[in-house]
Structure formats: C-alpha cells, structure tokens
Amino acid sequence: MWKWISRLVRSAVGVLILAAALALFVHLVKTRHAPMPREIARALPVVRAVECVSRPIAPRWIGYGTARAMNASDVAAEVAGRVVRRPEKIEEGAAVDEGEVLIVIDPADYEQRVRSARQRVAGFEADLARLEVQEARLREQAALLDDELAIAQRDLDRARDAMKQGAGNESQIDARLQALKAVNRNRAAVLSQLEAIGPQRAATTASLESARADLRLAEQNLERTSVRSPLAGFLQRVNLDVGEWARAGDVVARVVDLSRIEVPVRLPESASYTIAPGDPVTLRNGGGVTREWVGEVVRIAPEADASIRSVTVFTEVRQRSDADAASLLRPGQFVAAAVDSGKREPMLIVPRPSVDVDRVLVAAPLGPGDPEPPAGAAHPMVVREARVHVARHIEGEFKDISPDETQWSVLSEDGISPGRALREGDLVIVSNLESLKPGDLIDVRVEADRAREPGEPGLARRPGADPVGAAEGDKP
C-alpha cells in the first residue's frame, strides 16, 4: 500500500517540475527583446579582366613533311680504271670542298693517249706549215713565169715586125712562138699546183681540228681520272677504295649540301588561298630533343590532291653548313611545319594564362537570381564560364587591351556551340583564377582602364555584351 503511494508522489513531483519548466520557457519567449538588425560587411574579391577583342592575325596552317637537300650529287666515275689513291679524309660524314679530290683512277693509259694525240696534232700543224711554204714558193714561181711570158711575147712580136720589114724569117718566128708556148705550159703547171694548195689546206685543217678534239678529249679523260666533288658539302657515302676497279658511270660517292634544305609540306586545300611564296615557316622535329628551324615558302604545287584534299607547299630553309651539327636540319628528317600566311584576318585573342585547356572565366553582368552585391563594390559582376578553341599562341604587345601581357592565345570557333562560345566584347578574367568558380560574385577592374587618362571614366561592362555561359532566361 505504501509502495503505491510512494510511486504516485514521485510521479506527481515530476509532472510539477515539467510544468514549471514549460511555464518558465513560455514566460521567457514572451518577454524576450527583438535583436537589433545590423549589416554584415562582405568584401568581394577584386579581379582583373581584359576585353576579348579581334585583331588582324596571320592564319597559321600546320602540316608535315620530310626534309630533302636541294643540292645533292651522286658523283660518278667518267672513265674506267683501277683506283690508285683515296685521300685519308674521304670518309662518310666528312666535309668536302667544291673540286676536292675524292679518288684517283690510274692515269697511265690516259697520259699515253694524250701524248699520242699531241703528236698527231703536231704532225698536222707541220703539214699546214709545209703547205704555207709551198704556196709561197709557187706564187713566186708564178710571178717569175708571168715576167718570162711577157718577155717571150715581146720577142715574138719583134720577130714578126722584122719579118714584115724583110729582115727576118719564118724560123725565127717559130722559135719565138715555141718559147712562148713553153713558158705558158710552165705557168699553167705552177698555177695548177697553186690551186691544189687550197683543198690540201682544208683537208689538213680538218684533220688538225679532229686531232685537237681528240687531244682535248684525251686531256679531259686524263683530268677525269681525279674524281672531284662537284659541290661543297658532306659525304653521305663512299663506294670505292684503293685497288678496286671503277667503271665509267659507277657511283663513287654521294655529296650532300646542307646549306639549302627543302621540305614539301602537305596542307589543307583551303591553305592555297591564303599562302604565297615568301610567307614564313617554322619547322620542328619530333623526338626527345626538340629543334626549330625558320624558313619560307618558295613555291606551291599547281594541283591539289583530290583524294585527301590537300595541297603541297614547298618550303626552304637556309642554314650554315659549318654550324653546330646538332642544330642542322638534315635530309630525311620528318618535321612538323607551321606556315604563317601573309594575309591577316580578324581573329579573337585573349591572354594565354587565362585559358584553361578549352575554357575561360568571364565577368558577366548580374542577372535575375544572382545574389545582391554589397554596397561597397565598385563594379560588381558574376563569374561565368565560356568555351574556347585555341588555334595557336602568339607573342606580342597589345597595350590597348592589356599593358602587361605579352603571351596571347588566338581563338577559332571550331566545334564550339554558339551559346557557350566566347564572343567579342566579353570580359575575360586574368587574375584569381585558382580561387574562382562560375557563380561567384566579383569586383572587376578592366586592364585597359589603367591606360586611360586621369578623370576618364572606367569601363565596368562593355555595352551590348550578354552574360556568357548563362541560359537564355538568365540574361538581363
């Protein structure tokens, strides 16, 4: 009995305590004072931004090709014979000068042919000299016979006059006539011999010219026994050694001139409309150690390859063959070529550090649904994301865009949705990129404003530009 009474008393006490606590809570709620409202100061991050603008940029075309020497020669032996000498320095990879001896073929037989040809020339020259002497003597004899003929004619005329006067006879006339005929016969014989001198001289002169031609050929063949390099360059290979037999036409060595290297580069067919001879070309090799060479377009193939829609552009690199061997572009190397067109086209550019692979962060005007900025922000904006496609990188100064930046990314619209692409006039953020994300509020300072005259108003937002990366319904 007392046990149940004790339990009831304890339960009643607990209920009274709970009721008292509830009454105290209600009293405190009813009598509490409302808190004084106060503004929580919020400071927006100050970021720098540049305006995305277009500038005349030379289009760049990328292609590939294999280098080849513009001056190279497979040096062949022009005469046959056994190799009797090869200079010690004539080895593969060695540098040679124009005219330097590569090998020497046994010259003994060719020296004998030169001596024989010279003797024939000397013989015909002697024949011509003899004809000259003979001709001179015959002309002297002809002149003497002309005088004798005149005397004989006068004697005959005097004999005939004497006979008419009765002082002569027929026998004297016959004697004078016979003497005149004898002189005429001698004169005719001398003139006949004199006339034969011309054909003899022509035949001897022809033989002399033939002998001289044989002599020149023999001397050339003798000179050809020393096989020389036709150009300055490097030996790619040497095929003959001392004691080996060289036949006329056999390739003795290959010499390559590294001062002029040509690279046929395949580019898209459309490149032919913007590229012209003289446009600069940058060549790079592959592999672990990257090398770079600068050349120019020298000519363009007249026909395009319809099967792969490409055109071949021939580029030339000039280099010092005596430069460091590691820096030379060598025939046979496979290289990538960047051809910069001389025809400039408007293209969007942004600072290179602002690009993260295929996106940039831009400062866009606040729109519906964006948080309210604090009152102290000078140019409050919101971070948006825009997609980009980098065509190439360039180095230069565009102080009207940003006075400090020198590295720029040139953009193209390839494969970018119009609703998400960066557009001209957008403000591209160039600072605090690691700590920002789309949707953050920022206080923007435009880089170009630093170059303004004192007192000129800054540019918080370029007119006519919509927030990039936002949905259509989010635009102000």
Can you tell me about this structure?
There is one protein chain. The chain contains 3 helices and 22 strands. It is of the alpha+beta class and 476 residues long. Among the domains are: 89 residues, Efflux pump adaptor protein, beta barrel domain (Elongation Factor Tu (Ef-tu), domain 3); 117 residues, Helix Hairpins (Orthogonal Bundle); 125 residues, no CATH class. Strands 3, 4, 6, 9, 11, 12, 13, 14 and 15 form a 9-stranded antiparallel beta sheet that branches. A 5-stranded mixed β-barrel has the order 1-21-17-18-22. The longest helix has 57 residues. The chain starts with a helix and ends in a 30-residue tail after the last strand. The C terminus is likely disordered.
